[in-house]
Amino acid sequence: MSDHNDQQQQQCSGRDDSRTNLIINYLPQSMTEKELYSMFVTIGPVESCRVMKDYK
């Protein structure tokens, strides 16, 4: 029953929680993708992880 309600709420909200990006600002310049991945994999599955740097 709970699965049905979750699916119904997802359809009504127009959200697809299986396709989510998380943007995090103000990471330390020395942060690596491996470190960032390690922080979030303890919470749940992480499909991919990228650290983008501004070299300005």
UniProtKB/TrEMBL annotation:
Does the entry feature the keyword Kinase, yes or no? no
Stretches assigned to coiled coil: none
Q: Which residues form the RRM domain?
A: 22-54
* Gene3D superfamilies linked to this entry: 3.30.70.330
- SUPFAM superfamilies registered for this protein in UniProt: RNA-binding domain, RBD
Tagged with keyword Oxidoreductase = no
Q: Which residues form the signal peptide?
A: none
**Which GO molecular function entries does the Swiss-Prot or TrEMBL record give?**
RNA binding
Sorted alphabetically, which keywords does the UniProt record give? RNA-binding
Entry superkingdom: Eukaryota
State the protein's name: RRM domain-containing protein
